[in-house]
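Q: What structure does this chain adopt?
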Amino acid sequence: MLLIPVIFVVYSIYSLSKEEVYYGIVKNNGLIKKLVSEDKEVVYDYQLPNDGRNIKKNDWIKITFTERRRTILKQEIVKEDEVPNMIKRD
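A:
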């Protein structure tokens, strides 16, 4: 009987700690037409939150989410050479 709550807690901790990393190019007004993950998952028309950062058009952005894009853990501008080649080709 105690096993079910323990399994639930362990699974919850695991899924909250799992991260997904996406890359994309910023277009007008903080819109990213296509975010691509390192696992080749794609999100279209993602609007960056307006948090006062100095993000400009044509900047490459790296966004780290919790699993299933529930929460942004980290958002940063990166240089193009920091973006994996398989993502730049898409």
